[in-house]
Amino acid sequence: MCANIVYEWLKTLQLSQYTESFVDNGYDDLEVCKQIGDPDLDAIGVMIPQHRKKIHDAVHRLREEEKEAAS
Amino acid sequence: NLLVEHSPSGNGAYRSVNEWLEGIKMARYTDTFVENGFSSMDAVTQMTLDDLRRFGVTLAGHQKKIMNSIQEIRAQLLNGMVPL
After folding, report:
1. What's this model's pTM, rounded to 2 decimal places?
2. What is the ipTM score, two decimals?
3. Is B74 touching A (CB cutoff 8 A)?
4. How far is it, in rounded angstroms, from Cα B82 to Cα B1?
């Protein structure tokens, strides 16, 4: 059930339609999702600008949470 | 005999680098692997994350997927499940 964490994350962004593509490209946990940038979204096939922005913002939040947890 | 030819694990007995990469949906890297000397499954099992980075597999998800698969293949080899 560990692939579902990415599904849950994408669902909160209302972008769960990309789950399969995320997992197929190896983005199957939040640790690896924290490293997502434009080239990753190109490979996954997220082409709609609003969707890309939503994911960029969410990745930024994941990184912030990590920083807070570390401090 | 079809029954005998079935691989015991179902996913480890890749005969070529191309077949393996297609199996994990990373076939876009077949040429890259072959050009860099990883043209057999034997060579692939020796591959490291640094090798991947060096020849331009830069996406974190793809690195993860390829390295996970290599580790599975190594484990199956150690367990004697798949002859290379």
Report:
1. 0.84
2. 0.87
3. no
4. 18
